[in-house]
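ok so for the tutorial part 2 we go from a plain amino acid sequence to predicted structure tokens. step 1 is just haveing the sequence, like this:
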Amino acid sequence: MKIWPSLILTGTLTLAGSTMSVAQTGTAAKGPSPEQIAEDAGAPLIGKYAPAITLKTIDGKKIDLAKLYGRKPVYLKFWATWCVPCRLQMPHFENVERTLGKDIQVVALDAGFNETRQAVLDYRAKMGLTMPIVIDDGRLADALNLRITPQHIVIGRDGRILQVGHLADAKLDNALKQAIAEPPAAGPAAGADRISVAGRFVAPTLKTPAGAPLKITEGGRPSVIFFFSPWCETYLKSSRPAMAEACLKAVQRVTEVSSGSGARWVGIAAGLWASQKDLLAYQRDHSLRMPLALDQTGAFFRAYRVADVPTFVVVDGKGRVLARTSQANEANQVGLRAGSPKSAAKES
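step 2 — the prediction. this is what the tokens look like for a chain of 348 residues:
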């Protein structure tokens, strides 16, 4: 049985020892802090009405956010079972549900990146979590500018976004307190400036680190798109060693196969927890000569329905998907067959 620390109400809502340090998150001191990344992502959202969407929990229950706006504030938190700072913040998160769950709708939003439903169920059982859990299908990550995990969104009683952040600290606790203290409101009116939820995702034009547009297809040739994460093989060594090993083996095979391949190769890096500097280091460390780009918003991944790395998507000369696989060799063979003279003649 889990014993969770109590929330201490002393003018502000705080949890002793809840603040995450740079050392705890494993993020280097150089560059923006994780909290700054989350706040920058959330800045355009503050004051806007949150998305109207019905969520389905891993237990099959539905949460209609639109019906809550005007009646009850909402606390959403993106996380993942492999995410170390998410694990460190989980006692605070669960404590909010246990102490304030009657006053605010708490929802654990698994980011759905390199995740399985079973892993989420196992983690819930291990930690004794009681809040509703939803595995995001990409729509909320897109609408709420997910850039890092954990990333939380506090929505006021009137349906407007009050705060977006990364840390479980006094700033978050104060936002929760403010949301709960708000009087009943009418909620968003028809035509209100509400954050929209994508019905379908369109692949954006990405740029290489040098600033040139990344061409997915070129000269009518088929291409193999290598979807990866620059930190998978290193960061996941402790939290998901099997995933880390799979990522390392995949990029080693990609380095071998792509350099002598007759098929065209391009690489797309997930933007979650990654920067252009990480992409360049990854390219250097693995001697990758293919064009690479960072999918900072995750929109390219979502457009191609990629939620796991490594993934290989093979497209023909017109950009139509021919195959998707987790194996570099298989992807290369499909690309080579699609680019053969016989295949080209058939296509024309």
